[in-house]
């Protein structure tokens, strides 16, 4: 398995100056999906934005992992609701034009 789209967790921990145990806690809660390859732990490169958001919530706002889970779930729900509003507005415009 090539690791070209994967970033080692050790590299992320050193870059963002966070503890490895923080990532373990994120994995346990299900906030981060990791891949284990040849006894090394990686995250997908396209998930780095989510990781940065989690780190900022934790370090800048002192939100614990459970709070981060709640915040991320609410943000996902907001996006779904906004998509639903857009869909309903489009349907309403269709009926108003007839």
Task: Walk me through the topology.
Blueprint: E1 6-8, H1 9-16, H2 20-29, E2 34-37, E3 40-44, H3 48-59, H4 65-96
Task: Please characterize this protein's 3D structure.
The chain has 98 residues and is α+β, with helices and mostly antiparallel strands. It is built from four helices and three strands, in the order βααββαα. It has helices at 9-16, 20-29, 48-59, 65-96; strands at residues 6-8, 34-37, 40-44. A three-stranded antiparallel β-sheet has the order 1-3-2. It is elongated and about 60 Å long. The termini are far apart.
| SSE order | EHHEEHH
State the separation between the terminal residues, measured CA to CA.
Answer: 55 Å
Structural class: alpha+beta
Summed over residues and divided by their number, the pLDDT gives a mean of 92
The backbone outline, from C-alpha atoms, is elongated
State the share of residues found in helices, binned by percent: 55-70%
Beta-sheet strand percentage?
5-15%
Low-confidence stretches: none
């Amino acid at each position: 398995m090539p690791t070209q789209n994967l970033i080692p967790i050790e590299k992320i921990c050193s870059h963002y100056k966070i503890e490895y145990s923080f990532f373990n806690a994120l994995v346990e809660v299900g906030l981060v999906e990791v891949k284990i390859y040849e006894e090394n732990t990686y995250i997908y490169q396209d998930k780095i934005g989510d990781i940065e958001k989690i780190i900022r919530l934790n370090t800048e706002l002192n939100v614990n992992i459970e709070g981060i889970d709640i915040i991320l779930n609410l943000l996902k729900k907001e996006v779904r609701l906004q998509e639903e509003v857009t869909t309903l507005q489009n349907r309403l415009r269709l009926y108003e034009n007839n």
